[in-house]
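Example record for the data management plan.
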Amino acid sequence: MATEFPEIKLHWLNESRAQRIVWLLEELKLPYTIEVYHRENMLAPISLQKVHPLGKSPVVTISSATTSEPLVLAESGHITQYLCDHFAPTQNPSLVPRKWQPGKEGQVAGETESYLRFAYLLHYAEGTLMMTVLVSLILGILGSPRVPFLVRPVSGFVANKVQNAFVFPNAKRNFEFLDELLRTAPDGGGYLCGGELTAADILMSFPLIAARRRFAHIGKWEGGSLEKAFPRVWAYLDKLEAEAGYLRAVEKIKELDGGKFVAI
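Corresponding structural encoding:
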């Protein structure tokens, strides 16, 4: 007998964090549909507010025989955790590391290292790391053609000073932290939580891809470049972008959005 799945719809916005949810849904092997939205003057369109009051993306709606109204899920971390809680055990168990050490079920500090990393990274991706990336992105705009020509030399000068004084030290600290996580990953490593791809890696993909593009152009990296300073993190990012599920997600968006895809 075929498994009956609920109706899942992803409200996807171009150049947004929603792309990670496409990848997650691909890894979960779930049937789903995508409604495409496009930015207007860099912002999400007002039409997204009809789905969720904040008008942000990603938003996932889930309809099933047990719900009178669609369930509306917002925030990438919440969406990831909800989908994994309900579907990973049967669809792709490796997306969530085993929670308990043998014989320590339910005990304080009884969790596996892989699971503790997983739980932490779901918050770190949208917290500490993403905040540093966003500050860099905003400062980058101050020196771009989006700023009036007469103001741009001053705004760009100030932005560069802040990038070097504030963003670069934080970027370096975050990459040192990630490099150590990869170096010490359990079960032979390869991914942040161990030897297999997890939903935490998927969630981390967006801020890390954005960070690689933004941070490469600020400060003075050891060896002359971000890649040479942190080859392990760089290789990890290359690995994520070569994952079959990631590539399927990219192709799906290209099919739906006229052959275009820009990560950020």
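Summary line stored alongside the record: The domain at 113-243 is CATH 1.20.1050.10 (Glutathione S-transferase Yfyf (Class Pi); Chain A, domain 2).
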